[in-house]
Design brief:
alpha/beta, nine-stranded mixed beta sheet, 9 strands, DHBP synthase
């Protein structure tokens, strides 16, 4: 489907930032181990350094190295039920997850979007994981279409990848973490857990 995978890889490996469709809203991303590229995302968005990015992939298996093991049972249940989909889980991070992604927090948000274009990007890049956030300036509404993405941040990113007809639904993911083994909702979005 995507006809410029080599170009996408070259951009990411050289510290570039790409924009792409997901199942919820459009996203901005880079390779997680590239601090220069992470800083570029913060600059593009005028984002507060205290707000962490999240990690996304096409399969949960690819995110395991970034998470402290074992993953708690309640989290495993939610992963089985809602991944891929519009749920971001905030879990304890491993030493592999850089502090510059998590703003120094001991946790990291992870998600597997249910979108074929996003999945194909991940399947074809180094490490199959992107450090990511929504495609917009901080405080503004996230981009929901290719055209909005171009309008909001098109001149600031290295590449905006077409959606090939796999459009974003427009509602943000639900963000949940855990306290004493029980899920806690940080942001109510597309998915209702209870």
């Amino acid at each position: 489907m995507i006809n410029n995978i080599d170009e996408i890889n070259e951009i990411l490996q050289s510290g570039g930032v790409i924009a792409y469709v997901t199942d919820t809203v459009w996203g901005l991303g880079c390779l997680p181990n590239n601090e220069k590229a992470i800083k570029k995302i913060y600059n593009i968005k005028h984002r507060d350094g205290k707000k962490p990015l999240i990690l996304m992939s096409d399969e949960f298996y690819n995110l395991l190295d970034y998470l402290k093991q074992p993953i708690e049972k309640e989290a495993q249940k939610l992963i089985k039920k809602y991944f891929p989909g519009a749920l971001t889980l905030v879990l304890e991070k491993s030493e592999k997850t850089p502090d510059y992604i998590t703003s120094g927090l001991t946790t990291v948000g992870v998600r597997i979007p249910d979108n074929k274009v996003f999945a194909e990007i991940c399947r074809n890049i180094d490490g199959r994981v992107l450090a990511t956030t929504s495609a917009n300036l901080s405080g503004e509404k996230p981009a929901l279409t290719f055209d909005e993405t171009i309008k909001y941040i098109g001149d600031k990113v290295d590449l905006v990848i077409p959606d090939y007809g796999f459009t974003a639904k427009g509602k943000a993911s639900t963000v949940a973490g855990f306290k004493d083994g029980k899920p806690v909702i940080f942001r109510q979005g597309e998915i209702t857990l209870y």
